[in-house]
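User: Structure tokens for both sequences below?

Assistant:
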Amino acid sequence: MGFYILSQGAIRKKYIHVVPVSLTASICDTFLILAAVLGVSALVTTLEWLKLILIVGGGIFLFYMGIQSWRASTQPSNDVLANHTIGKTVAFTVMISVLNPHAILDTVGVIGTSSIQYTGWDKIAFTASSVTVSWIWFFGLALAGRLLGLRESRAN
């Protein structure tokens, strides 16, 4: 996900054009963090069939993404990503945010299980901190990509 946002920042003509991607990723990550903190982690660890669904679904997703990457690598340039409509770009961002096994492992496996040790205001502070760091991360990646894109365009 991080590389996707970084590359979107690099190929878009203006930072404002990558804001919808960062916003979408941040909202999706917030949803995953809230779900994990509110109990999905406990649910996943107790239901074997749910673990199996997540593993099989994650495998299918990774296979699909591998095929998409392979197809994209045979195209002349990455400018194809820059020409997608905002709707397609946002939909793709939702897909790779919510279906990404790495994101699920991070939120459910790390953030969710870490949140179990907190209660009350401490849990709220932990959750708010996790969400805040996520938003800073995604918008920072977009900005870093944009700065790299500007540097690359000046070099050419």
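Moving on to the next sequence.
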Amino acid sequence: MEKKRALYAGTFDPFTNGHLDIVQRAVKIFDEIVILVAVSPTKHPFMTTEARVDVLKKLFAHEPKVKVDSWSGLIVEYARQNNIASIVRGLRPTGDFEIEFQMASMNRKINPDCDTVFLMTSEKLYYISSSLVKEVYNHNGDVTAFVPPLVHEEMNKLKK
């Protein structure tokens, strides 16, 4: 039987506890999850692509079902090239649905063999976003409740 593989893509700048929640739930559904650090030419990340990939590899070193990679092209093209039939996306009750639905529809048009699976963000984490975490962090606020400890350590290395 063929493995059920899924792609969980984002800039993950930084990777939050909300992202972690989605991955932990997705590994219960799929045989393999590829966390794909998306490289966006329009964004100016706080952490380098290499730093984000490295911290995610360390964070999930104990989880054999999780692989980590990076990509600067279309996510659906990565899925096509790597025979991945599902894209996992988290949905928050903060207006995500419209943009996520539009993106899923476009992806399906580009790659009809790839479906998007939406997971609702945990009610305890729905307010967390990478943008807000960076904002709080850049104002010397405490973000330890919003990111995994390993990610917080990496953020602190960059601030020095």
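User: Anything stand out in the second?

Assistant: Residues 96-110 form the longest helix (15 residues).
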